[in-house]
Structure formats: structure tokens, C-alpha cells
Amino acid sequence: MQAHVYMKVRAAGNSSIGLKRRINEDSYLINPDAGLYLIADGMGGHKAGEVASRIVVDTMNDYWMKLHRNEPVSFVEPVTKDVPDTAKHLINSISLANIIIHEAQKMSEYRGMGSTVSALLLDKNRIWSANVGDSRVYLSADGTLKIISEEHSVEAEQRSLGLLNSHSSSNPYIKNLLTRALGMNKTVDAFITSIEPSPGDIIMLCSDGLTNFTSEEAVRLILSDPDAGLEEKVGRLIDAANNGGGGDNITVILLEVLEDGMWRRFVNRFKT
Predict the structure, then answer these.
(1) Fewer CB within 10 Å, N side or C side of the chain?
(2) pLDDT tens for residues 131-161?
(3) What span, in angstroms and rounded, lies between the C-alpha atoms of 51 and 33?
(4) Nearest Cα to 91, choosing from 5, 183, 184, 189?
(5) What pTM was estimated for this model as a whole?
(6) CB neighbours of 54 closer than 8 A, spacing ≥ 6?
């Protein structure tokens, strides 16, 4: 399968160790050639989390570069979701990373390691978003901020069941307990959805080091600032998380959808 990327975007990203961690267990990828952007937040103690997140980034990047070179790629398990082949390959690349991390845990130094993943993939006039864990994906459009990803944590599940409401305080004992992560089991169920953004919209990938130490209102204001460039916004978001306590690694990727002749012609064809 050869993917053809029609949407034109500008991307910027960075990662900070934060103020309290000894190592950075986050990894991220910006690969415009493959139209692939992802963040992985590793866990497991010592350097195992760093290894797990790096496995995610390297495995998925290698998968998509092979795909773009038209090299054959096998499906590690059936993809039953009713989505196009491009999205099925995104799910498959996540499943492959999960298998590698799960197998690596047979070594004692990597036992118990795992990772979240949030990924964006450009596909013609839309962007696929897939995630496992609590590294979030947001869409900033016309001054609003909307979460695109699905959070796989005990706290999020309690909220969805009505056990917690929007005014409930976060419980520090369950806030970071994940119900899904790469490496937990032999198989993993990734959440996937697509968006069709407009020029000027910004899509943000971030690890929970940002969302746990920065309010959504602060994020919204930074992303909607018309006078700040994309790299400046990344820096301001990381600074905001550090100013909020910096208790974890902080990683942010921003994609800004640009005006593009081919993209605009595609959209205009379907306007009523």
C-alpha cells in the first residue's frame, strides 16, 4: 500500500524531563515523509520505561517506512474494525509494538515495562488518530479545545460510569492507573477515529506530564494565540507544565493544518 498525503501541515515538537524525574521515559516521532506523528510514554522503573517508549517509536516508524517503500508487511492479528486499509495498518503497527514489548518482558530487567501511545497519521483529506493509554490528542479549532482520544485509565472509566463527575477532584491513587497500555497483554485494543480539520486548526499530541500539570483552559489559550508561532506554543505549553509542578516528563507535538492548493481543491469539490 502506498499512502498519498494530500493535506499540508506544519509540525513542531519537544520533550522535557520535567522538574522531578531523573530520566525522560517519553519518546516522540515527527516523520513528515510517512505522515506519521506519535508520542509514547513509557513506564516500568529504572530504564525500562525509556526502553518501552523507544520500542514503540522505532517499531512504528520502521513499519510505516517499509509500507511507503511498498515492502510487504504482515498483519500480526486480524483487524476487525470497519475502517479503511490505512487505518488498519495504523492499528497493526501499534499491535506489533505491543507484541515486541510484551515479549521483551521475558527478560528480568524489562519485566513489567509498558508504554502508552498516541499517534496521528495523515491520509488524504483526513487525519487518523489512534491511542492506547492516557497520552491525549486534542483538536484546537476556532478558539475551542476538543479531546479526540479515548482515555484508558481507572479514573476515566469511573467518570464514564457516572461514579465521578466533572466537579470531582482527581484521586491521586487512581489517576495514573491505566486500564490499557502496550505490553500489558499479548493483544491490545487501540482506540481509533478520524478528523477532517480545516486550515488553521491545530492538533496536539501530549503525554500526561502536560495534562496533569496544566489546565485545559491554559492549553486552549496558548493554542489559540494568533501571535505565537508553532514552536513558541510548544515551548509555552512545556513551560506551563513545569510551572504547574513539573512532576512528570512532558512531551508535546503540534500539527497545524495549512492552506494548500491541492487540499483546497479537494475540499471545494465537495462543498454544497
Answers:
(1) C
(2) 999 999 999 999 999 999 999 778 767 666 6
(3) 25
(4) 189
(5) 0.89
(6) 27, 40, 42
